[in-house]
Write a structure and sequence with these properties.
Blueprint lengths: L2 H4 L4 E3 L6 E3 L3 H4 L13 E5 L9 E5 L4 E3 L14 E9 L31 H15 L11 E5 L8 H12 L1 E3 L31 H5 L7 H5 L3 E3 L6 E4 L18 H5 L3 E5 L2 H11 L8 H4 L4 E4 L11 H9 L25 E6 L2 E5 L13 E2 H13 L3 E3 L5 E3 L6 E5 L21 E2 L1 H8 L5 E6 L6 E5 L8 E5 L10 E8 L4 E9 L14 H14 L16 E6 L4
Parallel strand pairs: 1-5, 5-25, 6-7, 7-10, 14-18, 18-20, 20-22
Antiparallel strand pairs: 1-2, 3-4, 6-23, 8-9, 11-12, 13-14, 15-19, 16-17, 21-22, 23-24, 24-25
Helix pairs in contact: 3-4, 3-13
Length: 568
């Protein structure tokens, strides 16, 4: 636990701005953590050395609780009055990856980010370590309430392949996973290709950027990464939200590219092109609405022959939903993991679910099959959200700002999506609703500000920790946007979210970051699942293209978010 937390102090952010001040003693200012062990309140992955070279990680001091009062000021004594309403965990951007697939363009990294990561072969086994962490924690650290569920907010797979989906479902539900495709006897991806563009762990190549940084030589790592392991599966129900990597090639190309299945299941993998071709292709992919030269993207240059595998076939949105609905994939429940038969055709994959008594969850689909990584929301889904909120809001504001009262039972709402308000500017038409207008994140924030019963919007996509207040025209109209870092890139976090009634006209939303259950210090000579999960974390920190700003600031980590209780 941090020194501030040990001494009973917190960092407070007041309604007057984002300046830090040391708050009053814990009894007057903040909640008492019932059990911080196993969370970043206690310890955090910390580099042994700083600088530009490769570094190991070690156990560092935990992060303190930050009280945020931008939407409403907290009242003293609430710690002794509060009642837990719900407690749950958010996973996001797991990016379970078939690193040997020919339908990837790693050679464009970092011009197209992220086309490749040095740790990606270890993703499946490391995700199982995150599952183990949730199973061992079992409850929220501030309210002590047992977790009601886990929600994964998109980019569950990296390249929307059937084999990646099978691994993802097996990891969360529990089962035996062999995270290898093609030839089961050997790894056939770019990290054993002999190309100096990539880290070759079995035998690092002189002169490549990874070796220059000090990446280690770890013979046998790629074999160990593809070895069979057992995931315990989550002990609690889990729900699923759709992300752009779940519906398109590398999360960025448009749907319906002729012959794309043959590229996924074929035998030729491009591992390099000349710099001019790379820059031209990257510029096209990064331009929304551009005509993607698929033949040029997946042909020519330096080619590696790989073993074809029909399991790499890309799934459709409908197949993604139906896989969740399959009885064999129910795991700890619920059936469909939020999706129902109404979503089974893949056209509309948004839904509502019961979080806890008096709280409704809304899972959105902010992706578009027209391509490009960012998203938006279709008009039909926008109007559906408006109707859903209105049906359970005795007080709300219409589109002109007029206050409306009606006789209905109230529910509190928490929304989940893949994209954030700031990454919903891609209004290209969605092929599932080709004539429907698309709306931006700003328009969606304006909608949520009309409904005081909205507490939070929880999302991913950016791979960074960021918590944003969205104040309304009145104090009751504000809500919190909670964006959490991915589990594929450092800092590899998930987030516990607890909601408590303070019995004083306010609610507290506690957010606590957690890490996978694996030692901070990686052991290069250990091929166990736990050791590989440790190495996954270390490699992600040292990725030569990593943006360590994704860790976020103290105000984005472990927080108490105060908000008006609209039902008091």
């Amino acid at each position: 636990m941090s020194e501030l937390s040990r001494r009973g102090f917190v960092v407070a952010v007041g309604v007057t701005g984002l300046g830090f001040v040391v708050g009053a003693p814990r009894a007057n200012a903040s909640a008492r953590a019932v059990n911080p062990a196993g969370t970043t309140l206690d310890t955090v992955a910390t580099p042994v050395t700083t600088g530009t070279g490769y570094t190991r990680l070690t156990k560092g001091p935990g992060w303190p609780l930050v009280v945020r009062e931008e939407l409403v000021a907290g009242r003293t004594g609430r710690d002794d009055r509060r009642t837990a309403l719900t407690s749950f965990v958010q996973f996001t951007d797991l990016h379970v990856t078939d690193a040997e697939s020919p339908a990837r363009f790693e050679y464009l990294h970092p011009l197209v980010s992220p086309a490749h990561r040095p740790q990606e072969t270890l993703g499946p086994v490391a995700t199982a370590a995150l599952v183990r962490r949730v199973n061992s924690l079992r409850e929220g650290p501030f309210t002590g309430r047992a977790f009601d569920f886990v929600m994964t907010t998109g980019d569950n797979t990296d390249n929307h392949e059937h084999i990646e989906l099978d691994w993802f479902l097996g990891i969360l539900n529990g089962g035996t996973i062999t995270p290898s495709s093609g030839d089961p006897r050997r790894y056939e991806g770019v990290q054993s290709s002999g190309s100096p563009v990539f880290w070759n762990p079995d035998k690092p190549l002189p002169g490549d950027d990874y070796t220059a940084k000090g990446f280690p030589e770890i013979p046998g790592l790629l074999t160990a990464a593809g070895a069979t392991f057992v995931s315990p599966g989550l002990d609690i129900p889990w729900y699923c939200t759709f992300g752009n990597h779940d519906d398109s090639v590398s999360g960025s190309l448009p749907e319906g590219i002729p012959g794309i299945e043959n590229l996924y299941t074929g035998r030729y993998k491009i591992i390099g092109k000349d710099e001019s071709s790379q820059r031209k292709l990257a510029a096209t992919i990064n331009t929304p609405g551009a005509n993607i030269p698929v033949e040029e993207l997946f042909s020519g240059g330096v080619v590696r022959e790989v073993t074809p595998d029909e399991r790499r076939k890309p799934f459709t949105t409908a197949e993604f939903v139906r896989a969740h609905l399959a009885a064999a994939n129910t795991g700890p429940g619920p059936v469909g993991h939020g999706f129902t038969e109404a979503n089974a055709d893949g056209t509309d994959v948004h839904y509502t679910f019961r979080i806890a008594p008096g709280i409704t969850g809304i899972s959105l689909d902010t992706t578009t099959l027209a391509g490009f990584a960012d998203g938006s929301i279709g008009l039909g889904q926008y109007l559906w959200v408006e109707r859903t909120l209105r049906r359970a809001s005795s007080t709300y504001y219409d589109g002109w700002g007029n206050k409306v009262r009606q006789q209905v039972g109230d529910e509190l709402f928490i929304l989940f999506s893949h994209h954030t308000s700031g990454t919903m500017g891609n209004v290209l038409p969605d092929y599932r609703h080709p004539l429907e207008p698309r709306l931006t994140g700003d328009a969606f924030v304006a909608l949520l500000n009309r409904f005081p019963n909205v507490l939070a919007w929880v999302n991913g996509h950016t791979h960074r920790n960021k918590i944003t207040p969205h104040p309304g025209k009145t104090p009751a109209q504000g809500f919190w946007e909670i964006n959490t870092a991915s589990h594929v890139d450092f800092p590899q976090h998930a987030r516990i979210i607890e909601v408590a009634d303070n019995a004083d006209g306010t609610l507290s939303l506690f957010t606590t970051l957690i890490e996978a259950e694996a030692p901070y210090a990686a052991d290069y000579g250990d091929a166990s699942s736990t050791a590989l999960a440790s190495l996954y974390r270390e490699l992600s920190y040292n990725d030569i293209h990593v943006n360590l700003g994704r860790v976020g600031e103290a105000v984005d980590h472990n927080t108490e978010l105060l908000i008006v209780n609209p039902l008091s």
